[in-house]
Amino acid sequence: MSEHAHDWFARSADAFGDCTALEVAGEALTYAELRDRAELLAGRLTGARRVGLLASRSVTAYVGYLAALRAGAAVVPLNPEHPASRIRGVVEAAGIDLLITETPCGETEIVAAAVGSRELAPDDVAYIIFTSGSTGTPKGVPITHRNLAAYLRQVAPRYGIRPGSRVSGNFELTFDGSVHDLFVAWSQGGALVVPQRGQLLAPVRTVNALRLTHWFSVPSLISFAARLGSLEPASMPTLEWSLFGGEAVPLDAVRRWKTAAPGSEVEIVYGPTELTVTCTSYRLPADPADWPGTPNGIAPIGTCYPELEHLLLDDAGVPSDRGELCLRGPQRFGGYLDPADDEGRFAPGGWYRTGDRVAVQDGVLIHLGRTDHQVKVRGHRIELGEVEAVLRQLPGVRDAIALAVPTDEGSHELAAAVSGTACVPEQLHAALGDRLPPYMRPRRITVLDQLPLNANGKVDRRALHAELGS
To answer: Where is the AMP-dependent synthetase/ligase domain (predicted)?
Structure first.
């Protein structure tokens, strides 16, 4: 079987040409129509090495993704809502030589040009996702065609997707959950059905309006549904499968979802971008009465996929049944776009250090938290150090600390505390709008005369957490 990412779509296009492949922004395309549009656009991308895709939740976005792969280029998704300075930084760091975007009228536009042609190999890059970096600069994670093929071998046949299945496309293309959405659906002949951003705030209504059979999202969206009071028993009868990942999944929350979708299998998935979308899974028993209990009320992340190996290292670096989760295997990326970012992320033997602290309970992995200052907020991976670095660059700010604090709905949001001279929270918020994407901007900024220190003279994050979380 070919390991080129586009071939997973092409095989379905050959077999299911008249079946719906994509529904987005009021337009539906069959596999044949989607392939024709992608082939036409691919002809204009000849010779491109890395293609930036500045489009979101539109036909251009998904046609452009396939076209770039068909042309043998690596896809670099860019979010139009991110600050222009951040987009420029990613374009430069990725070495993008061609940009696909949309005109205000919705037409596809190509910026710059590429010439020549190139042969494609399994170890060539299929896509690059940029994640938050602790130094204040996003880190590029290149995933090869071989990495993606190893992932799809594990998950593509797992969820009973077939022609007629309607698979949610909830994730932005800059989030690697979208890779699952696209290729698990398209490799099996299903339809990728993409909600508009506002629809995600009402998940139950969206599931029913779009007649979805397969749902994949961060668990935070359950909170939106609960807030609306829409998680009534059997209120989502079309769902066959529900997947949750991207952040810790509270058992209480997913129990409410299961009540609303009693005919749906529920699976928890986990994986850093560096391991190609997900690398472990845990399928909850059909009867919630049989669900496991965990020390922190968080659903297990399960077991590794068969092609992967895992190792837990304690604080002394010794293998243990509790510690930092390390992984290796064909889904593991080869290293960051900037080799300087590799420092400290790999252990001898080819192990990738995830920074996630886990334990083994009844043969499955339980997530216990992080070993560093990285957090997940509504599925987005955020290095608190990056937020802090940007805050310290603002006029008047002497020092800054960012934290993830709990909300009333059981999820988390970013909060920050700063010290300095003439700092006004509203002005700091406005300044961050030109520097950080929306998901990385603290919802609250508190100005203090001085940040609290512990006995060692370091900033007392525990004291700040208690203050900012109250």
So the answer is: 9-337
